[in-house]
Amino acid sequence: DTAHVYDSTGIQNLETRPNKLAIIGGGNIGLEFAGLYSKLGSQVTVYEASSAILPREEEVVAKLAKEYMEEAGVTFVLGAKIEQVAAAGEQVAVTVNGETAIFDAVLYATGRVPNTADLGLENTAIELLENGAVKVDDYCETTVPGVYAVGDVNGGPQFTYTSLDDFRIVFGKLTGTGTYSLSQRKSIPTSVFITPVLSRVGLTEKEAKEAGYDYIANELPVANMPRAHVNNDLKGIFKVIVDKESKLVLGATLFGRNSEELINLIAMAIDNKIPYT
Predict the structure, then answer these.
(1) Residue ranges of the FAD/NAD(P)-binding domain (predicted)?
(2) Residue-level pLDDT at 178
């Protein structure tokens, strides 16, 4: 239990800005805080165990995001093996790949697990999955009738948007105003609030390939869009995956200004089976 080591909740309660911040994990949460604290003036180092950040996103987008963040002053250490995190006076010593660096604070951003261990659920009929998530049916109802589990705790995608959609399902079930269920869930757009914002809906090219689709992948740099020049913000790239035969959109990644709004148009096209033209 080392002081000055935080999760993504605890670090929001800091009263002073750390001059040097280490972030362990190069996923969505880690990068959002890296961008935030870098803008606030902290020297930020991100340690990522894999060979790339944002491993679930399009490779071209992940590389571009890393480039932009490095230009903003964020340092990345990829292939990082964390060997020790220990107190060093009023600071924290982080040993990675045999080398030790000193930081004012450390953020653990390696993902979250359902916080069910201390709930005493073993004394109830509520069943858990192997990863500790609460087992639910198509309406987010647990194995105890009348008890529901929504959000990260039921093992679904860890996004606010997914939790909100879980709520819609439970609300409809409890009030009798709807029959919407998990099996009817369509594509939920998500956003990572780095600069520029990274938004995605549906499949990436890798996922489409693994699913066996015969697809077309189109990329468009933001700098090629007239609106980007009007906004004087040329950073980013848009990528869309389309089924070759039906021309239906399988997925899209929008990395650019206002992507958190534009992605909803793509989601609408996917949900309503509007072909790509």
Answers:
(1) 4-163
(2) 85
State how far the Cα of 205 lies from the Cα of 259, in Å rounded to an integer. 19
CATH code linked to domain 121-184: 3.50.50.60
Distance, in Å, from the CA atom of 211 to the CA atom of 255, rounded to the nearest integer, reads 24
CA distance 203 to 239: 11
CATH 3.40.50.720 fits 5-108, yes or no: no
| Closest listed residue to residue 151, CA positions, set 141, 166, 137 | 166
Gap between the Cα atoms of 179 and 215, Å rounded: 33
For residue 194, give the DSSP letter: S
Task: Dig out the tokens for 9 from the structure.
Answer: 């909740």
Selected from 3.30.390.50, 3.30.2000.30, 3.30.70.1890, 3.30.390.30, the CATH number assigned to the domain covering 190-271 reads 3.30.390.30
Q: What is the pLDDT of residues 245-262, one digit of tens each?
A: 999 999 999 999 999 999
45 has which bridge partners?
Answer: 22, 75
CA–chain centroid gap for 30, Å, is: 9
Q: What single letter denotes the amino acid at residue 164? A: L
